[in-house]
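Example record used in the benchmark description.
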Amino acid sequence: MLRSWLAADAGRLVLCGGEPGIGKTRLAQELAGHALARSREVVWGHCVETSGAPAFWPWRQVLRAAGADPDAVLAHDAEVPQDRFRVFDAVATALDRDGLVIVVEDVHWADEASLLVLAHLATRLRNVLIFATFRDPCPAVADLMRSAVRIDLHGLSADEVAELTGPEHAATIADLTGGNPLFVTEIARAVQDGTWRPDQPPRSVRDIVTARLDRLGADARALITTAALIGRDFDVDLAAAASGVPISALDAATTLIDATGHRFAHALTRDAVEASIGTAERRAIHRRIAEAMAGSAHYADVARHWTACGEPEKARDWTIRAAEDAVRRLAYEEGARLYRAAASIEDSCEVQVALGRAAYFAGDLAGCVRAAQRAAELARTPEQVAEAALVLEAAPGAGVNAVATPLCDNALRLAVSPATRARLLAQRSHLAFYRGEQHRLGELSGEALDLARRSGDDRALAEALHARQEACPGPAGRAERLGLAGEMIGLAHRTRSPRGAMWGSLWRIHALIESGELAAAQEELPALRLACERVGGQVPRWHLEVVTACLAQAQGRFAEAREVGRSAYDRMRVIEREPASGAYFALQCGLACHLGPTEDGLALARHFHDPPPRFRLMSKLTRAFLLLRAGFRDEALEWYRRCGPIGEWDLPAFFVVPGLVDAVLVTSGLGLLDDLAEVLPGLETFRGEHAAGNGVAYMGPVSLALGRGHLALGQLDLAVADLSTAVDEASRAGAAAFAAEARWHLASALRATGEDADAVQRAADRAIRALGMTGFTTVDLSSREHEVASLVTEGLTNRQIAQRLVISERTAQNHVQHILTKLGFSTRSQIAAWMSTHPSTPADGPAARTP
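Model output (structure tokens):
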């Protein structure tokens, strides 16, 4: 099996499990030997059993062995939780070399951040073999099994035991050890050195090690017991300094340590040595180790030793330093664990604030909420109350906000510095946004921005700019958002913040798309790309890909939009599924305008995640729109009915115009003319604008939807005027597909008024063919074919159609096949989708052409 993995020259994660001493390390060594024989590079990393190792410890060893600088690879600052994926990508990049073999031992002892790296590498490194050992039970293995091969090792047979120990005592030893290779090997040594007594056999490896310790001299014992309290892997110089014994004393303990001279032969060996130390002696040794490590950067290790020798104040100080170091290294789970340990010694507001931030970055929102509440309880000054309130960040869900809002309101009642107050007001504005308190955003964000500007505090200014741009949605706020984008970019340049530059560029591009200036938005993409590359990580790439796909969709580059949009979805859904699904579904709706629904779009429409409360109405409208485009009228109607009375609608601020456009298209397509007449006046107020929300999808000029609505209501003069305007507005915007769509509907409106529409129709048809707008067709159906297509839309089978029209089933089948061939379709559902927006008059009368 080992040889086959190496011969395959392909990457995989292999998880090797079993009890201590079962041979996991031996198998790893065999794998490494075979790999080296094939001239493949092998690097090792060891997780340690003590709680004091620095964050990402096994990967620091692996990176160093691979010739990379761990401090450089793992050195990244974080502003949002997703930034940590930059570290994971950096590790993957440093280790992405064909044929590399990585061995990581004892992952059951790994910190959570190291396990996340392992899971990331398992999916990223296609030509690297990772062999990881673990001791059962290990819950973390279950999460890794989706991308791993698992092997479990078992004990030796009686015959195999006899080969190691000789036949005389083989049966007794096999029964005693259960075939555990380490135990068997240790007993075999005892047999060889004459310490084996059949009448008093050792009951564990511990018994054997204790017997060996008893034969050591005082110096060797002092050195080896000190080493055991340091860990399985120990610093020889530290052990010598803490014990006061020269390193040469280790020569007498060669049966307990491996060939490296600074590692116990097995974790069980170290455990046995530690167990032999009395309580008083143990505390004294821990104190000497802690004192010897006074200048060490292994903060958690020092804290462990001070804890073990009964010095809680020193232990707390070092634990906090260790937590700060873990968070600085982006090992947030380890940082949160250490802050909790510090709080258990002596709690404080500062520790809880730090714990809350670490928990937030680790994705532990419940832990973040608890820490914020506890920090508020422990706060003694107004500034501490404010810091407790700022631990939590506004989120789409209601749970966090329910706690964050009263904390923020309470802090705002107190006298704090201008910069702190600006940050609190910005936080409160975000909370109001997600709580649907749109009427409060202007006041809160405006005061926050004014205070931040006057305070001269860059952090407060950045947070206030975020809050203010969020408070200026839609066409009315576009000019101010463009100004805020410029201010954020200027701040980013002054503070050298790539993330600030990214946000400023995004805001500018969103505003330009919304104003129909697609070419100008396209010109801004290189600046955004540069900022996203400097930030690094998956989330900035997602932002870049989402807006790139939106522009491609708006400008009729459909293949690019599909490819980039799918890449963005795949990149983000493993990090944050809700925004990934929301943005991708919006793009699918935009593409469906001209290509018809895709399998991805229909899958999301029918199995969409439950969106945050603020976006549920928009989710229902977009589902109804896409299902209607697919020809599933009943399902579309059901989702539309779930939207409730139009007068009670409350669309998200940035999606009012797209939401109303969807509503017009759905009500007109379903023939709900009373509802359409109620929706149109609301959309009328946005005449001259373009339907786009936050750069995820573009739905064309508002005049296009108004024209289609008036056409459905039979208001032909209004329809002709609106659709003519839509042709001009879409053309000026560079939205060629929407211009073609507007011409196509304008031709229908002109024909309905009795005017000549041939020239307009020909222009539409040319553009539709040139752009590959497969959701449109320019062929005619006969009266009978139109009748058959209508029955297909009702869901009738060929036999039922034959019975309804009093024709043979074979004739009905031929009609359906002719319709499919004419329209270039392959399924009956495509006919239904085509008919959902098809004019009711067949080609025997005016021309039958439709998307």
